[in-house]
Write a structure and sequence with these properties.
- The protein is α/β, with parallel strands linked by helices.
- It has one domain: Nucleoside phosphorylase domain (Rossmann fold).
- Helices cover 30% and strands 25% of the residues.
- Helix 4 links the parallel strand 7 and strand 8.
- InterPro entries: Nucleoside_phosphorylase_d, Nucleoside_phosphorylase_sf, Pur_Nuc_Pase_Ino/Guo-sp, Purine_phosphorylase, Purine_phosphorylase-2_CS.
């Protein structure tokens, strides 16, 4: 066993001491989206600082705990707070929880994030299913020797976001009168919000929304053989020419306002697993 697989085992063994259930799904909650965790029943909370080899989130809006319990009567493990490359973590640290959730038994990963909108048809508070992404982050989570027990050297990224789950989410949204977009997410390093020229550039190359997370976690999830469904809450619109000063507080506020709709879609998708 390698150092990484040893660390994955140590973390998953520790978590398993608190819960003997095998989770079907993992959930990663983005900035301002931690209230979704309140829908988890019979919840067991484990602070990240207590889990062997887990980083500790340093970002406002990320509470920093792992939650085990039931969502829509299905066993899940949820991250209330994620890790980002801009915090100073390595990409292996950023994506370590995905490896641990896989070791715990999940087969599907649900990811949420707060993102800046670049599609002129979007408004603040809209939801966007991520159907594809563009990776502009400066480091890759699979760089270095490949560990074949974790996944293949060259994983296929032609369809990182599961089409069946996207279709089901569209049906759920329609049945509940929720307006839903789909689009391409651009992953960048951060922590600065983008300039107007950067927003324009990323829209020209095919992006509909931009954020500082998600892409590394998706890459490792695909490497691990997991199905992925991801959704962005559009918390600001950067493509417009008028004055658009963005603050983290406004991002959190917009995410919180849209959270009930996102929670409903995630809950119903998990119910169908």
């Amino acid at each position: 066993m390698s150092e990484l697989t040893d660390q994955i085992k140590a973390a998953s063994d520790y978590i398993s001491k608190f819960w003997d259930e095998k989770p079907l799904a993992g959930v990663i909650l983005g900035s301002g989206l931690g209230d979704l965790a309140e829908d988890i029943e019979d919840a067991i909370e484990i602070p990240y600082k207590d889990i062997p080899h887990f980083p500790v989130s340093t970002v406002e809006g990320h509470s920093g705990k792992l939650i085990l319990g039931y969502m829509s009567d299905k066993p899940v493990v949820a991250m209330a707070g994620r890790f980002h490359f801009y915090e100073g973590f390595s990409m292996k640290q950023v994506t370590f929880p995905v490896r641990v959730m896989k070791a715990l038994g999940i087969h599907t990963l649900f990811i949420s994030n707060a993102a800046g909108g670049m599609n002129p048809d979007f408004s603040v508070g809209d939801l966007m299913i991520i159907r594809d992404h563009i990776n502009l982050q400066p480091e890759h989570p699979l760089r270095g020797p490949n560990e074949s027990e974790l996944g293949p050297r060259f994983p296929d990224m032609s369809e990182p976001y599961n089409k069946e789950l996207i279709y089901r989410a569209m049906e759920i949204a329609a049945m509940n009168q929720i307006d839903l977009h789909s689009g391409v997410y651009v992953g960048v390093q951060g922590p600065t919000f983008e300039t107007r020229a950067e927003y324009k550039y990323m829209h020209i190359i095919g992006g509909d929304a931009v954020g500082m997370s998600t892409v590394p976690e998706v890459i490792v999830a695909i490497h691990s053989g997991l199905r992925v469904f991801a959704m962005s809450v559009i918390t600001d619109i950067g493509i417009r020419e008028e004055e658009n000063v963005i603050t983290h507080e406004e991002v959190l506020e917009a995410a919180k306002a849209a959270e009930p709709k996102l929670t409903l879609i995630f809950s119903e998708l998990i119910r169908q697993l």
